[in-house]
Design a protein that fits this description.
The chain is of the alpha/beta class. The chain has three domains: 3-247, 2-enoyl-CoA Hydratase, Chain A, domain 1; 272-428 and 470-499, 2-enoyl-CoA Hydratase, Chain A, domain 1 (Alpha-Beta Complex); 433-468, no CATH class. The chain has 21 helices and 16 strands. Strands 1, 2, 3, 4, 5, 6, 7 and 8 form an eight-stranded mixed β-sheet that branches. Strands 9, 10, 11, 12, 13, 14, 15 and 16 form an eight-stranded mixed β-sheet that branches.
Amino acid sequence: MPKSYNEVRKKLLDMEIHALQGDAKAVEKQHQGGKWTARERIAKLLDRGSFVEEFLLAETQKTDFGMAKKKAPTDGVVTGYGKIDGRNVYVFAQDRTVLAGTVGSVHGEKIAYATATARKTGVPLIGLYDSVGARIQEGLDVTRAIGTMFYQNSITSGVVPQISAIMGPCIGVAAYCPALTDFIFMVKDTSQMFITGPPVIKEVTGEDVTMEQLGGWKIHAEKSGVADVVCSGDEDCLEQIRTLLSFLPLNCGEPPPRVPPDDDPGRTLDDLDAIVPWEPKKTYDIRKVIQRIVDGGKFFEIKARFARNIVVGFGRLDGRTVGFVANQPMFLGGSLDVDCSDKASRFIRFCDAFQIPIITLVDVPGYLPGTKQEQNGIIRHGAKMLYAYAEATVPKLTLYLRKGYGGAKQAMCTREMGADQVFVWPGVELAVMGGSGAVNVIYRREIEQAADPEKMRQQKLEEYSERFSGPFEAVAKQYAHAAIQPEQTRIRLIQALEIFRNKKEDRPYRKHGITPV
């Protein structure tokens, strides 16, 4: 065998070992910051020994601005494929120990390749972000690579699930890559996302702000709504990603996985009366209702800290994945507003894209009134839920718990908006508006002219309530398919999902609709 071959082989092995070991000081610094390295994260995320790395020896190509001495294998991002619970996934992890994880042209091309290949192979894409931003020394080549990343994220949307974990800084224009994916996880205290950093803000506006104040987990989980799931640390983040993936299909062409049911499909919910008070203005936690309905009480909530007047997330019924959209009376009485409309409509569209049935739990007093909501565009934003439900072709089941008023009732998926099955509980009130407000509008003059206005108002309120309280008008006029007892809720939902599992629904030919964004 030629000597030159052995020399090449040895050099190649040495380069691979060097790339895999990394810089010891940089690794130690990462650990001191309470974070794992890119390869440690991938090893924890994937099934043991399943990772296959690609482009290990790809390295920085540009030599401008002193970069010649900074060439490094991987170019600051580890890419490849492996398995989670035996199912294939593509993954990339930015490596903060190599060139600070900065995004250069090779770095961006590797991520774009991983995204495109995940789409071609029909498997989920998981991106682990930890980078100080673009490598400006490479000039326009960086912007081209980042643009390619944006493009691949965009055309992959709705084809395979895309999950982003922000496990360190995610700074500058590259922050739009996670924004183009389906779910964003953030780690408390170690992750930040923003477009313009504190130094630039200080120079332009004079404002002093820290990275955490600008784009920390709390800002994006509670105010901006960018973050979908908040995690306590690296380990928790990776475990929660695995949990989310267990609910999702590999791609849009196959149904979500079914797990062996760990709960009796015939189980009755005898304690729902104790959870949901019949008085329409009393509050309760809708998450407790969902947890009683789903298999084993396991509910994976999305955007739990944002727009808390609506709850969305995944559970299982008889082992099959379902998505829940539910009014939350604990916040703003469960009324709809700008933020919750955005939150719900995006979730509805994700479920529809990936063949996940949608269960809507309704207890809504209406849209949140006020000049602020009108000025912030509640007409435009509220229309998103109407559009999303009407567009969705997956099985859609709607349950009214206590009340559904006005246009907000339509936004929560009525029969005319495409619900395949509509159920109502016995004490439900369905009307254009609540009794007190309706009486003041309809009978205002009669009440004002009465000898005893308050007595007249109470009389009219009783008449109104007699007509609209209870399920009788809803079932008589076929607005609902059935009035059911609360304890039968889980059973009826499972039965309906079974009959609609193979539902087919045609839509008019078009390139695509125009979402009210």
